[in-house]
Write a structure and sequence with these properties.
The complex is a heterodimer of chains A (312) and B (476). Chain A has helices at residues 10-15, 27-32, 39-51, 58-64, 72-76, 83-96, 118-122, 149-153, 169-181, 208-212, 229-237, 257-274, 292-309, and strands at residues 107-108, 128-131, 136-139, 159-160, 189-194, 216-221, 242-247, 282-286. Chain A has 312 residues and is an alpha/beta fold. In chain A, helix 10 links the parallel strand 5 (189-194) and strand 6 (216-221).
């Protein structure tokens, strides 16, 4: 198999010292804990493909197509290696050789799609385009960064991402359900938190005792733009007293997911208003990377405000 | 080697076993120059599962290599003989925090920085956290006796392990140590496990001593036109009444790499010394900082910067923190290899050792720099070289040998915190020549079938260059 694009990264793959410091931030690694799901693991696969030690296969391709492009690995690398650029070229080579896998990219169900084009208009990665002749949406899997903004935007649920990464509608809904079940006798607050701006709490370890004492539950998504109105309403429907969405500061989200979240919050607020539910039960807040304390105090004050309102 | 995969799946479930070539390839590497592919990766979540896997492996003499984050730099988790890599990252629960006993109990896969995130709300911390603490696990740090930048004041992992649960090679579970700081009698078997690099047992739970978070911290940075002056400064600080909480050296090669890779705009001097003091009283911390500043000035330091707010301290320390990886772009065509990556020498020999490292690098046609936690006599280097050229590996072999010959000649030791594993074993075996038989006897007594991380430490091959396949594309 030819690796016309990946070939140029041979030297960079040697420059990588494999320290593994990139692993800390990776959203995929936080979910699976398998090393193949770390940026270092995928760089090793790319290296193995180049040296011939790893045979190209659907499994290897699937792994290289799994990346949410938060680029925290690239930003944190002191050797200035850019894993995401390398993955993109590996993807293009693999696609060219016929490995058509989904990974974390979006899939459009043509049976459901109405070709309204809303997904195309919100995709900042230019991964979606409209085939006007056949009136269908095309997905460029090499360009798709898996932010999920289009999944939340699609009015008919035609856009989806694979399960297993904790970000599909089904998984997020199940997480809301189990979180609310565990909040017996306390203020029931759901916090949606954008993994790319801030990751609250423990990244790679577990502390079950602490989780049991929580008065709110933080549900981490890859981008606030992934939160669709249905999920917010689902949280209220399942018994949440309040919902908070934490996202990147305006103009700092490369997917404009925070703008989308803003629009969707405004829509849900109107719906809540029509139902006679006070709009302060839904709050959107902005946080920059590392502002953990700021998030914590915002959560605390939101929880006490919601506690005074009581259940809906 | 035929391994019964179904049997392993029966122990940890289908989802806890990986045996496809892509996963195995990934688990064959760490941060060292070595590569070797395991036969299977298993991920137990309970002590019972670890016991059952080890019992099975022992019955069939299959190697078992315990693995945390795989951040080791000498090939600790590289499965030199294949076998089972036991990934312990899902045994990652913080089991108990007991502030009144100043201790915690954790599973081996807990990540050092995660533990400190939790401890912070109790006003406590775990100081023996290595620079790699963002991913390094407690189990790996114990097995390697890691220490980190604050060892000068707070000691190394050995000082923090009160007790542990260990699965031995025969599958038996033993509880070593106690929940107390005072432990007097008998063999200190918990201490024996610290630094044993996975060769004597698999740590499945640890009881760790904690410390109160210092109320005040201040950090300083001093520049030197002569490396010798920086070395003298470090020796004088160590010998003074002040105990800094951090004392680091960064040499000119490292400064060049940081400026080139990360545009840090550091002054191109021969050496920078970074220091930190902490304590309960601001006045006491300031007084210690001033004393260190005077020692620096006595040895011709200039451009001294000091700061005590978090952002300022982060700025002062950022160069040192990002150094390791930045070295990989020191010179076009060169890469940074983790070779001769750490050593310890008596504090008075710091400057001389740093100079020797530079000379040895030059003599052997590679580049070697010097940096590290010099307050405890610990120096790190890396060999920067053209890793795809065969001759450079001859050069590297000689350079490693030369460095450690010097270290031994001044009463130093082969590893201060990074461990021995494969690539430092030849030098270490020379250093420990008269105690190797004792170590081998302990190994045979505890692991008669030689299944636990075999062929590491005293049993590692005599030539590290050919011990495994190298991670770089080079034909030797």
């Amino acid at each position: 198999m030819e690796f016309n694009r990946l070939n140029k990264w041979g030297n960079e793959l040697n420059i990588c010292i494999r320290c593994g410091y990139c692993c800390e931030h990776c959203p995929l690694y936080k979910v699976s804990n398998w090393e193949i799901d770390t940026p270092r693991g995928r760089l090793l696969l790319a290296y193995g493909l180049l040296t011939g030690e790893v045979e190209p296969s659907a499994y290897v391709a699937e792994k290289l197509f799994q990346c949410f492009y938060c680029e925290d690995c690239s930003k944190s690398c002191s050797a200035k290696v850019s894993p995401t650029d390398i993955f993109t070229d590996a993807r293009a080579d693999l696609m060219e050789s016929g490995f058509d896998v989904q990974g974390t990219t979006v899939r459009n169900d043509e049976k459901l799609c109405m070709a309204c084009g809303r997904c195309v208009s919100v995709c900042k990665s230019e991964a979606l385009s409209m085939d006007m002749e056949n009136m269908r949406v095309l997905v460029d899997k090499v360009k798709c960064k898996g932010c999920g903004v289009c999944v939340a935007e699609c009015p008919v649920g035609a856009m989806s991402q694979k399960e297993g990464f904790g970000i599909s509608s089904k998984e997020l809904s199940a997480k809301i359900e189990s979180s609310l079940k565990n909040m017996n006798g306390i203020t029931k607050v759901i916090i949606f938190c954008c993994d790319w701006s801030i990751y609250p709490g423990l990244r790679l370890s577990r502390m079950e005792l602490m989780e049991a004492e929580n008065t709110s539950e933080v549900i981490v998504t890859v981008c606030a733009g992934r939160i669709d109105p249905g999920l917010i309403l689902d949280a209220f429907y399942q018994g949440a007293w309040g919902v908070m969405i934490a996202c990147c500061p305006l103009d700092e989200c490369e997917h404009d997911g925070n703008y989308r979240a803003q629009e969707r919050c405004a829509l849900v607020e109107r719906l809540l208003d029509m139902l006679g539910v006070p709009s302060q039960r839904l709050q959107l807040v902005h946080f920059a990377t590392g502002e953990t304390q700021k998030l914590k105090s915002a959560v605390d004050s939101f929880v006490s405000e919601i506690a005074s309102l009581g259940p809906i | 080697m035929k391994i019964d995969i179904e049997r392993l799946k029966g122990i940890v479930g289908e989802k806890g076993v990986r045996d496809n070539i892509a996963d195995l390839y990934v688990y064959g590497s760490d941060s060292s120059v070595h590569e070797a592919t395991p036969s299977v990766v298993v991920r137990p979540e309970t002590i019972e599962a670890v016991q059952e896997i080890v019992r099975y492996a022992n019955a069939w003499s299959i190697p078992v290599i315990a693995r945390g984050a795989g951040s080791g730099s000498s090939g600790h988790t590289v499965p030199i003989d294949g076998g089972i890599v036991m990934d312990l990252k899902r045994m990652n629960r913080i089991l108990a925090i007991r502030p009144r006993d100043i201790l915690c109990k954790v599973e081996p896969g807990v990540v050092c920085d995660d533990l400190n995130r939790v401890l912070q709300s109790h006003g406590l911390w775990f100081p023996s956290t290595p620079e790699s603490g963002r991913i390094a696990t407690i189990g790996g740090t114990i097995a390697n006796n890691g220490s980190g930048v604050r060892a000068i004041k707070y000691g190394t992992m050995r000082d923090y392990v009160l007790g542990m649960k260990v699965v031995l090679a025969n599958g038996a579970l033993v509880t070593l140590g106690a929940d107390t700081r005072a432990q007097a009698s008998g063999y200190q078997l918990d201490r024996l496990m610290v630094g044993s690099e996975g060769t004597l047992g698999i740590i499945v739970e640890a009881t760790l001593l904690l410390r109160h978070l210092p109320k005040f911290r201040a950090m300083g940075l001093a520049k030197f036109n002569k490396l010798e002056d920086a070395g003298e400064t470090i020796s004088d600080i160590v010998a003074s009444e002040v105990t800094p909480s951090l004392l680091e050296l960064v040499d000119d090669i490292a400064i060049t790499a940081l400026n080139k890779t990360l545009n840090m705009n550091l002054p191109q001097v021969e050496a920078i010394v970074v220091y930190e003091c902490d304590g309960r009283l601001k006045e006491a911390v300031d007084y210690d900082m001033e004393t260190i500043k005077e020692i620096c000035e006595k040895h011709n330091a200039f451009g001294i910067e000091m700061g005590s707010d978090a952002k300022e301290m982060e700025r002062i320390y950022s160069g040192r923190k990002k150094l390791f990886a930045a070295l990989s772009r020191y010179r076009d065509g060169f890469v940074c290899t983790s070779l001769a990556d750490d050593m310890a020498v008596p504090s008075s020999k710091i400057a001389e050792c740093a100079r020797k490292i530079h000379e040895i690098g030059e003599r052997n046609h590679v580049v070697m720099n010097a940096y590290g936690h010099c307050g405890i006599g610990l120096l790190h280097t890396k060999i920067l070289m053209e890793a795809t050229r065969k001759e450079q590996w001859e050069n590297a072999r000689q350079a490693v040998d030369d460095v450690y010959s010097y270290v031994r000649s001044v009463g130093g030791t082969t590893s201060g915190e990074h461990g021995i594993a494969i690539s430092k074993a030849p030098s270490w075996k020379k250093e420990k020549a008269d105690s190797l038989q004792m170590m081998k006897a302990i190994k045979v007594a505890l692991d008669p079938n030689n299944i636990l991380n075999p062929h590491k430490l005293m049993d590692a091959p005599d030539d590290w260059v050919t011990a495994t396949k190298l991670r770089y594309p080079v034909e030797l």
